[in-house]
Amino acid sequence: MKANSLFVLLGLCVPLCVGASQVDRKRSELDALKQRLQTLQQDFNATQAHRQEAADDLRESERAISSSVRQMRQLDGERERTAGELQGLREQADATSARVRQQQAHLAQALRGAYTRGQGEALKLILNGGDPNQTARDLRYLSRLSHAQQAMIDSLRADLAQLAHLEEEASQKNGELARLRAAHEAEQAKLLADKRAREAVLQKLSVKIQRQRREIATLRRDERSLTDLVERLNRLMAQQAAREAARARAAQQAQQKQESARGQSASARRPVAVNSETPVPFRSNQPFARLKGLLHLPVAGELMNRFGAPREGGGLNWKGLFIRAAQGTAVKAIAAGQVVFAEWLRGFGNLIIIDHGDGYMSLYSNNESLYKQVGDRVQGGDAIAAVGNSGGQPEPGLYFEMRHQSRPVNPLDWVK
Q1: How distant is the alpha carbon of residue 62 from its chain centre?
Q2: Contact criterion met (CB below 8 Å) for 206 and 52
Q3: Residue 353: how many CB atoms within 10 A of its CB?
Q4: 383, 368 in Cβ contact below 8 A?
Q5: CB under 8 Å to 143, separation ≥6 — which residues?
Q6: Which phi and psi angles does 397 have, rounded to 5°?
Q7: What tens-digit pLDDT sequence spans the chain (416 residues)?
């Protein structure tokens, strides 16, 4: 491309004595340039199609990761509940162990008494020739004592069996929880690896597309320049000196525009402000409109644009704020409301929208994962998502919008 551009500039500087042979040579070069441009345009279209496929694959990966993170949070809640159950089982086991020890002591005492009296106590009572009524009462006492000892032995066996059952149940719950946690961690690791691989493919295709766009733009510029040169050589040989000056001025202006664009791009990458405060949990019965000036932005980080300012590439203005933040940082709801959208959306990645009533909505996009689902009620300060770079965003952060009756409003007018 540099050689073609240099050739065009040199062509502008040909002497006034240029002839028909040079015009023919320029025409031949123009035909070759058009053929090259056509081939490059076809390659560019094919690359665009591949990039779309990679973006669709990345969308599925980000959806799966969001679902996996939500399942992990649910598993953590189950783990806390199971820990409480295990604590209850341990307390039951401790109580059973104490009861078993007490019964073992009573049984040992009864057995020692029986051993001291000897095994023929009932027979002695019958043969000693004493009072029959007293003998009958003594025999009933011995019978009751025997039944009580047998009942104590049966109770001891039942308590020992219950203790073994409780210990087995606690062991099974611990094992089940460990298996579930390991399986989810393995699945999440695989999903993250797939996402990184697809992001790498998408990045390579994006770089290739940018390079092809620059090359196509350069070729088209060279084609126009070369076409102008051929026409002017045929039509206005005498005015070639004036054309040289005009071309030089155009080249200088183009260079100045490029340098200005590079300067604007470098400036855009610098933050315009820094936010350090985030929503804290609160409840309010006031209408959302009365909270104006009392809210906080949903995540701490660097504000990379101003509301309403032109976006890079031209044609569109910023309708919200992009807040650059660390991957995985909690995104918090600015106020109470109901989740009306929680899904991946092209250009926005994992997007969640909260309806605050009276036509007011807040939008949180480019998230790594979504913690809430459609229909969930949230309060101000609730964690609803995690910062990411889904949807093809080159760096992690949160794109945040506020809307009233579908029209964007400046979020900075609503914060302290």
Answers
A1: 7
A2: no
A3: 21
A4: no
A5: none
A6: 170, 180
A7: 444 443 444 444 444 445 566 667 777 878 888 888 888 888 888 888 887 887 788 788 788 888 888 887 887 888 788 778 778 877 887 887 788 788 778 767 765 765 565 545 555 655 666 667 776 776 677 677 677 767 877 887 887 788 788 778 878 887 887 888 888 788 889 888 888 888 888 788 888 888 878 878 887 787 677 677 667 766 666 566 678 778 877 877 766 666 555 545 444 468 999 999 999 888 878 899 999 999 999 999 999 999 999 987 666 899 999 999 999 999 999 999 999 999 999 989 999 999 999 999 999 999 999 999 999 999 999 999 999 999 988 899 999 999 999 999 999 999 98
Contacts of 11 (CB under 8 A, 6+ apart): 26, 225, 226, 229
In 3D, which of 96, 47, 381, 24 has the Cα closest to residue 201? 47
CA dihedral sign, ordered 375, 377, 381, 383: negative
Q: Which domains does the chain have, with CATH numbers?
A: 1-235 (1.10.287), 273-413 (2.70.70.10)
Contact between residue 226 and residue 33 where contact means Cβ atoms under 8 Å apart: yes
Structure tokens at 339: 């989740």
Please tell me the distance from the alpha carbon of residue 355 to that of residue 361, in angstroms, as a whole number. Answer: 5
163: Cβ–Cβ under 8 A, 6 or more apart, which residues? 93, 96, 97, 100
Instruction: Please state whether the predicted TM-score (pTM) of the whole model is above 0.90.
Output: no
Tokens of 5: 């551009």
> How many Å apart are CA 259 and CA 236, to the nearest integer?
33
Tokens of 380: 């101000």
